[in-house]
Amino acid sequence: MAMRLEGVTISRVGTGVRVMGGKSLTITGGSIKEVQTGIVMMKGESLMISGSSTISFMGDYGVYMGSLVTNASLKGMRITGRGSGQGVYARGGTGMAMRLEGVTISRVGTGVRVMGG
């Protein structure tokens, strides 16, 4: 299954978007705000976020990718925390590719953290 969100606003929930399986998640524009965690993707071929999307989180992660995500592309977006947590966390399985282009990450403890891979 492929999921596509265009110009969607999600607010005041625990996790903005959680993907536990499927093929891909594509987010274009819109915002995820006032959440504990912005996006959690545990498994899938690709995660793509673009189009001036914004994530404003209050907990541990703006974007969390599990070890079974194989490709991630974040382009022209903004991730903002509350002074702690991690902007982007990638568990990094074998062969994972991640690209960030024109991404602004602010008010976090760690901007980008990659483990494994």
Radius of gyration based on Cα positions? 13 Å
Strands, count: 15
Order of helices and strands: EEEEEEEEEEEEEEE
Low-confidence stretches: none
Apparent shape: globular
First-residue to last-residue Cα separation: 25 Å
The percent range for strand residues is over 45%
Mean pLDDT: 95
Q: Provide the structure class.
A: mainly beta
What helical percentage do the residues reach? under 10%
> How many independent structural domains?
1
Q: What order do the strands of the largest sheet run in, or round the barrel if closed?
A: 1-4-7-10-13
InterPro entries: Pectin_lyas_fold, Pectin_lyase_fold/virulence
Organism: Bartonella schoenbuchensis (strain DSM 13525 / NCTC 13165 / R1)
Protein name: Right handed beta helix region
Descriptive key words:
mainly beta; globular; 117 residues; single chain; 5-stranded parallel β-sheet
Write the layout of secondary structure elements.
Elements: E1 2-6, E2 9-11, E3 15-19, E4 24-28, E5 31-35, E6 37-44, E7 46-50, E8 54-57, E9 61-69, E10 71-75, E11 78-80, E12 86-90, E13 97-101, E14 104-106, E15 110-114
Parallel strand pairs: 1-4, 2-5, 3-6, 4-7, 5-8, 6-9, 7-10, 8-11, 9-12, 10-13, 11-14, 12-15
